[in-house]
Design goal:
With 81 residues, the protein is of the alpha+beta class. It has helices at 52-72, 75-80, and strands at 2-4, 11-15, 20-25, 30-32. It starts with a strand and ends with a helix. The chain has a two-stranded antiparallel ribbon with strand order 1-4.
């Protein structure tokens, strides 16, 4: 998982006379959970009754829980610093 900022989207103003750079806005952080893949073909048998859609549903639930934990943590604040 990463929390990143696209620095090419920063808005700024340059004051050449005073040799200062003023940051007007910083883009919203981008949260990426890796690896991001989908299951398409799973061999189901007696010992493994899951299908691809089951694995995708589990992965989606886990990703939602991770995002909730990220929101509750200090990771985004630390990334801004």
């Amino acid at each position: 998982m990463t929390i990143a900022y696209d620095l090419s989207k920063i808005e700024y103003k340059i004051d050449k006379e005073n040799k200062t750079l003023t940051i007007l806005s910083i883009p919203k952080e981008e949260i990426k959970i890796s690896p991001d893949f989908k299951y398409y073909d799973i061999q189901a048998d007696f010992l493994n009754p899951f299908e691809a859609k089951d694995y995708n549903a589990i992965k989606e639930t886990v990703n939602k829980q991770l995002l909730n934990k990220i929101e509750a943590s200090e990771l985004k604040t630390n990334a801004k610093k």
